[in-house]
Amino acid sequence: MIFTVLIPLLLACFVPLISKLKDKIHTGIFIFFIPFVIFLYYIQFVGSDFTTMKQTINWIPSLGVNFNFYLDGLSLLFVLLISGIGALVVLYSIYYLGKDERLGHFYVYLLMFMAAMLGVVLSDNIYVLYTFWELTSISSFLLIGYWHFNERSRYGALKSMLITVFGGLSMFGAFILLSVITDTTSIQSMIEQKDIILNSTYLPFILVLLLLGAFTKSAQFPFHIWLPDAMEAPTPVSAYLHSATMVKAGLFLVARFSPIFSSYEWFFIIVSIVGIITLCWGSYMAVRQTDLKAILAFSTISQLGMIMAMLGFGTDLAIYAAVFHILNHATFKGSLFMVAGIVDHETGTRDIRKLGGLLTFMPMTATLALFGTFSMAGIPLPFLNGFYSKELFFDSSIHLTSNGLSSFAEFLVQVIPYLAVFGSIFTFVYSMYFFFGVFGGKNQLSLLPKKPHEAPIGMLISPIILVLGVIVIGLFPNLVNGTFLAHAADAVKGTVAEELHILFWHGWKTPLIMSLTVVGIGIVLTLTRKKWAGVYRFIPGKLSLFKLYDIVLEKLNSVSKGITKQYMTGSLRLYVAIILGVTLTLTFITMFATGGVTIQFDNLADVRVIEVSVVFIMIVAAIGTIFARNNVAIILIAGVVGYGVAVLFVIYRAPDLALTQLVIETVSVVLFLLCFYHMPKLRKRDETKSSKSINIIISVGFGALMTIIGISAHSSKWFDSIADYFIETSYKLGGGHNIVNVILVDMRGFDTLFEITVLGIAALAIFSLVKLKKNKEAE
Amino acid sequence: MEIIISILAGILFATAIYNLLQKQILRIIIGTVLLSHGAHLFILTMGGLKDRKPPILIDGIHEIEKYVDPLPQALILTSIVISFGITSLLLVLTYRTINENKTDDMAQLRGEENE
């Protein structure tokens, strides 16, 4: 199993080599065999005697992150969809993309996506699942932005990236919580421990985070906004990623975890409501669109909403219908996207207002579209698979039970059938709008950039196969029923359900009446569509989530820029003030919160007049630096402080310090005096009162802080000084009487070594600053 | 006495910070000089200021409590040299800055917008 995931990735490395040959032979021809072989490999598992399979390859065993692959009915369904439609899409793309495109890039991204998607559906380890999940986001981003010279492509790619990665990260949060609670990283073991999860206090967080991931990926309301913009991708990509596979990853996630959550009431409420809203909103919005791919994008959104709602219902029937519709939707939507691509390719436009009457020019394409759209609309004909799943959808919506659920859920159960019919009416309307808008009515050849003609046969092969799928499943629904759909439904349910038989004719029951209602009202609405145009335009009018997204993104940008500009002014003084202010506040809070302030008056040295007078002179001089208005004055006053320090060193029995301090203070003063000649005069600078008072507060606060720290530190001696060691061994070990010097060169000689280095570096830097003046001549 | 020296160090810190926050470069350097003085006094106070003998061994006297703590002195000595190196570098840097930019006003030495 693992090889089916890794082989596309490995072979993707060789695509750039193959793509060099693209003038002789189209790169896609080589690529076609990869998904085709994978499809053939997995088709062997189809059959009623299917059993689940496990495979483990260690990756990071110490963290429990391993390539645990698990093949059950649900993953088998998805794997077959991914590889099967993948092969068809590659075949289609051979005719769709010319040799002047960057084919190497395209197929590398596509293979990357295929591997990632296979990884998502086969992984049993949540972290591996997450890894592949993000890889689908990234490869989808690359594919949407394939024509990166288009501004709209870049916009669409970024939008889909932001939204799906947001959801992916939320899902990651849910995964971490799940693995912490259950102490395992395997989904199957989590399902076994579902009681622990259901009794956990984190359950609401897990559910919401997990569903955020699923809803963003599957374009559920209100996160559906990335899907219509993703239509800037090449049509094979739209057909593959944005109708058949990636957008179903969210459905897969919900289905995969539904054995855990299905008995949780909020799972039913949230998933059903979001699904139903997405169904209605998507199908309503699809009618408003003028671009063929935009219609299909909103139609995908609405169909995904329908499947999501069925997963939310959670009854045996609903789950079966959901799984069935995943298959059906992939067949007819994939073919419709390919039809839209053909129309675009052969006429040069996708604008439905310019198209029309193409039936006579493109009879094959029109036939394919007819099956696709009619199946999508759920028209009750025995050779359309869309009808069966829609019928099952209606059936499951009226058989919801509200046993033991809250009154809100009960209300929901009452409303859902009506919303289902409402959404399906619009599904019917946009399906007809799509078909008759393109192929019916009069032709407007003057508006078309190209003269329309039938597509090459190679381009038609893939949609023909998909439409054959529509018809075969329509005629013999039980062919796929027992062999693998039932296994998929069992995997979602978590238990083996009783076998269902899909029949075209049930007799005059409620679901059929609902279907006929949909068709009836749908026909009326389609015929009078022009009269409703005003309504479609008016609701929702200017209020749209697309604008909201743009505004939020723009505001995020401008507000954060504004905040940054507030404090990143380029003024070093402000930065110093901020750093000191924060340090002050935090240190004061810490000191008073932990009781760090202590003052003790014992164990202090005596106060003597001479010291006090030196201290007094130094204080006066230090304050004097602030008020000095003259270069020489300030340098000399600062010198007074330095010599004061030297005097204090003398008083406190530090002869070496006093010596050094005196010499260095003298050299410093000389240096200052050397420099002052080049300095502009000290002037009184304009300073606002507020900044002046802030400066005073910060500096006084800092002084007070240091004083308090000094006194407290002195008042709380925790242990004796290590000075006795130095005093005892200075002569014995160091051979010197001057303890300070022995410490400097013997006991702590490294300090001295690097202090010499510091001086050396400073000297070199000074030398180069004075000498190097090349900048003016060089520039 | 330690309290008085602590207060002195505190005042040195306060005036140093006030100078640091000024616009003129010379004042900023004076601020750093005052800051290092404050820090040195701070370290010295930590060792205690009791009236004892300087840390130079006299034959026959080995009682520890007779001498001043030598370790802070060694630390301060290192620190004095390092701060001197930095001060002199800063001074030359200032000289070059003023020469190149013809101003010593920090409010004007900001660099370009969006730099």
Outline the fold blueprint.
The complex is a heterodimer of chains A (779) and B (115).
Chain A: H1 2-12, H2 15-18, H3 27-43, E1 53-60, E2 65-71, H4 73-96, H5 103-122, H6 126-144, H7 151-182, H8 187-192, H9 194-198, H10 203-217, H11 226-229, H12 235-244, H13 249-261, H14 265-288, H15 292-313, H16 316-347, H17 363-377, H18 385-398, H19 407-439, H20 457-475, H21 477-493, H22 510-527, H23 529-538, H24 545-567, H25 572-593, H26 609-627, H27 631-651, H28 655-676, H29 689-715, H30 723-734, H31 739-747, H32 749-771, H33 775-778
Antiparallel strand pairs in A: 1-2
Helix pairs in contact in A: 1-5, 3-4, 3-5, 4-5, 4-12, 4-16, 4-20, 4-21, 5-6, 6-7, 7-10, 10-13, 12-16, 13-15, 14-15, 14-19, 15-16, 15-19, 16-17, 16-18, 16-20, 16-21, 17-19, 17-20, 18-19, 18-20, 18-22, 19-22, 20-21, 25-29, 26-27, 27-28, 30-31, 31-32
Chain B: H1 2-20, H2 25-46, H3 70-101
Helix pairs in contact in B: 1-2, 2-3
Can I get a quick summary?
The complex is a heterodimer of chains A (779) and B (115). Chain A is mainly α. Helices cover 73% and strands 2% of the residues of chain A.
The neighbouring-strand order within the major sheet of chain A is 1-2
Estimated structural class of chain B = mainly alpha
Question: What sort of overall outline of chain B do the alpha carbons produce when their principal axes are compared?
Answer: elongated
Using the coordinates above, name the CATH class of chain B: Mainly Alpha
Number of strands of chain A: 2
Sequence of secondary-structure elements of chain B: HHH
Structural Rg of chain A: 38 Å
Low-confidence stretches of chain A: none
Number of domains of chain A: 4
Shape assignment of chain A: elongated
Query: How many strand units of chain B?
Result: 0
Percent in helix of chain B: 55-70%
Rg of chain B, Cα atoms, Å:
20 Å
Question: What oligomeric assembly is this protein in?
Answer: heterodimer
Report the mean per-residue pLDDT of chain A as an integer. 85
Number of domains of chain B: 1
Considering residues with a beta carbon less than 8 A from a beta carbon on another chain, report the largest interface and each chain's count.
Answer: A-B, 95 and 89 residues
Helix segment count of chain A?
33
Q: Give a short account of the largest sheet of chain B.
A: none
Assign the CATH topology of chain B. Answer: Helix Hairpins
